[in-house]
Amino acid sequence: MQQISHRTTRGCQRLRVEACSRSSTSLAADGVINAATRWPATFGFVVPLLLQLLALLESGEAGPLVTRSPPPSPTLPAVLTLQGKLLYRTTQPVGTWVLAVSKSDATYRLPWQPEDAATGQPIPPATWISLACNTDGLNVPRCASISDVKVVRTAAETPPPTADQTLRLLVMTVNLSSSAACEGQPGLGVQEVMDLFLQPDGHVSFFDNCSYGKMVIDMNASKVVSSLVPCSQAILACDHDAISLGARKQLPDGVRPSAFSHLLYILPIGIVQTCGWLGLADVPGTQTWFAPDILGIYRKATVMQELLHNFGLYHGWRNGKEYEDYSTAMGYGDSCPSAPELRRLGWATPLAQLNSACFPLATFVNFTLPATYLGPTGVMVKIQPDWLGSSYTKNVYLAYRLKTAGDSGLLQTFNRKLNIHELNKDIDNDPSAEGDPRVSLLGVVSPGANTTLAAYKMYIIAGAMVNSNTSIQIKVCRFRSSINECTEGPMRFTPPVPPEPLVRQSPSSPPPSPPPALPSPPPPPPRHLSWLPPPLIPNRPSPPPRPPLFLQRRPPPFPTPFAPQSSRQFQPPFPSPRTPQLPRLPQIPQLPNAPTSPTQPSENAPPLDPNQPTSPPPLLRSPVPRLVFQPSPPPRKSSPSPPSSPPRAPPILFSSPPSLPPLQNTDIQTVIFAVPSSAGSPKKLNPKLAPPKPVMIHSNSSPLPSPPSPPPPAHNPPSPPPSRPPLPRLVLRPSPPPAGRTPPPKKQWNNN
Fold first, then answer.
1. Is 733 inside a domain boundary?
2. Residue pLDDT, tens place only, 206-219
3. Could you tell me if 356 and 280 lie in one domain?
4. pTM attached to this predicted model
5. How far apart are CA 276 and CA 541, in angstroms?
6. Could you give the CA distance from residue 245 to residue 230 in angstroms, rounded to a whole number?
7. CB distance 441 to 327 below 8 Å
8. What is the pLDDT of residues 347-405, one digit of tens each?
9. Looking at the structure, do residues 149 and 171 belong to the same domain, yes or no?
10. Range of the domain at 53
11. CB-hemisphere CA count at 13 Å for 720?
């Protein structure tokens, strides 16, 4: 017979079963269970268990049932074979690489950018790959290491986004409900988020203006919903995958994420500080995350930046620093994308595309460039400096920005200026290429200024703003070794633009830009500085045609990207003194003769080599009459006077030449003042001519010999000035004659 004994203690019940392995035949022999012979042999294990449960129920203080856990199995790293699309996520301070698993909502974080096992080259985002993921036994979608990476489908096989895009957004405001893990956290309201998109200057309007109607947010097909997600430690730690997965699982009935083109997640209010970022996106992809912050979902530039990440755009750069381009929403700016980004998106096309095949050497090419807001066609100049040979690695873009329309938030630093950007030429020349081209701001050039891009052997002059300031005239030249090689070419040269994909003309787009070519002016030949003011004296006789003047830069070139060195502007006129005291002034240096070629630039341009001295070059001007101050001579002793000469005509005062370029150097400057007119001496000036304004003359050439100095004053006390002190005479000297001729006789003083 089976022996069963019970021992009951306080708080504990112990059951001991003896001889539980006896056969059922022994039980039948004892007569306890007569029917045991009819049961299967395995039932003998059931009876002790039933008796054990019965004993526990009968005891009043039965303690918990303690079960023995199986021995732990050795922890082995789980290796998974995954296949999906490689994405780059714009986390800070460094980005994150993730793999969106095919036919699944799972997204695995990768420890680094995968490299092709066959070639060893880094794999760009948007590439379909397979890999072995070592999770280290962790119960999270994260790979501690990866191996055996293979490319299934390259990014080039993925068709690039077209220009015409209608976005259907599903915006989810995430709210956290309290759970055993953490307290609940509220999120933004649905109506508040809708107002951010639909207000007059909101997100929808910003996209429409910047894209010229080529990327439209369809709010009728979009939806803003609230999603209540149970709070978890992963969400409080700002795990963006946990946030997105939880939000999609808690959507209202009838809302399917597959019905929308892009998914936007707005974080709960309480975890903004934990995350440390304002916006996050998959590059490329369809998901974006935003902080409920004034610089997050409330800022239209942040929304544009994250959504354009989904289309393959990266951040703007400056001086090797990410985000530092303040002229574009892809950096820290509140304005439309820059010119290279507009073209990358297919929103705008260039006015011209220059390379060695259509950009003549040492010849200025002239453009009238409209502002970018007047797009989508002909609002930038793309330059491919392939003349650099193996050093050709980047393209250059020129664009004129104006603070209006989509660029109403443009900083004044870039407003009404020529903006210059550079980027990787391999990615820029291939619309289907993936990766960060590092669109970098080089600088801006103000109207009337110039700059030299020594790395690209280019010289750029920004002229006047025209067409009600909506366009700017520019001149571009490429040289071999020095800017002195650049000469004036045709008035307008429009190289052929390569065919661009046809884009839809949106009805909301601004009117087309004005034609770039302006009618050629009548003779004399066109000047480089056609934007300078007209002559000051309209009635003077017209001089012979002058050669074009060459605007020079001021060294050093390009000291800062935001303020490339520009030419010195004209100084405002100095007021004429009532009683001018004439100190000893240097003579006006002799101006060089007119060059034989009307397009010959200056000869001493600053060198490109920084090791060479950068002496400012002199200006080459056509011969002009030289006005020289000569002090009144001392009183002469009585002597036989020579035969009297016929009376001289009063001197003619010349104003500044109409094409005088901005000054470059202040090493040698001569200020020439006009003799003031007074009621007591009306005959000293021509009454028909307005008193000329002072002119700044600059030259590095050797000065003319000075006239004999007056005798030094005696050491006696100065005598009282006469009632009417003698005024200086302005003597007109003609240009120096050619070599070999006898110089003209010296001018005689007129004491009358």
1. no
2. 999 999 999 999 99
3. no
4. 0.58
5. 71
6. 12
7. yes
8. 999 999 999 999 999 999 999 999 999 999 999 999 999 999 999 999 999 999 999 99
9. no
10. 4-58
11. 3
Domain co-membership, 173 together with 109: no
Identify whether residues 258 and 142 lie together within a single domain: no
Tally of domains within the chain: 4
Give the model's confidence band at 139: pLDDT under 50 very low, under 70 low, under 90 confident, else very high: confident
pLDDT of residue 54: 64
- For 180-195, what is the mean pLDDT? 93
**403 and 275 housed in the same domain:** no
* Judgement on whether residues 234 and 363 belong to the same structural domain of the protein: no
Q: Residue 2: which of 19, 24, 25 has the closest Cα?
A: 19
Contact 525, 598 (CB under 8 A): yes
DSSP state letter for 361: B
Q: Give the CA diameter of the chain.
A: 176
The C-alpha angle 89, 98, 167, rounded to 5 degrees, equals 55
Half-sphere exposure of 581 (CA within 13 A, CB side): 2
Are residues 555 and 466 both part of a single domain?
A: yes
44 and 90 co-located in one domain? no
- The predicted pLDDT at position 541 comes to 45
In the block, tokens 């936007």 appear at 264
Q: How far is CA 569 from CA 532, 552, 588, in A?
A: 10, 12, 21
Q: What SS3 state is found at 399? A: strand
Long-range contacts of 178-184 (CB under 8 A, 24+ apart): 178/231, 179/230, 179/231, 179/232, 181/231, 181/232, 181/233, 182/231, 182/232, 182/233, 182/236, 183/231, 184/231
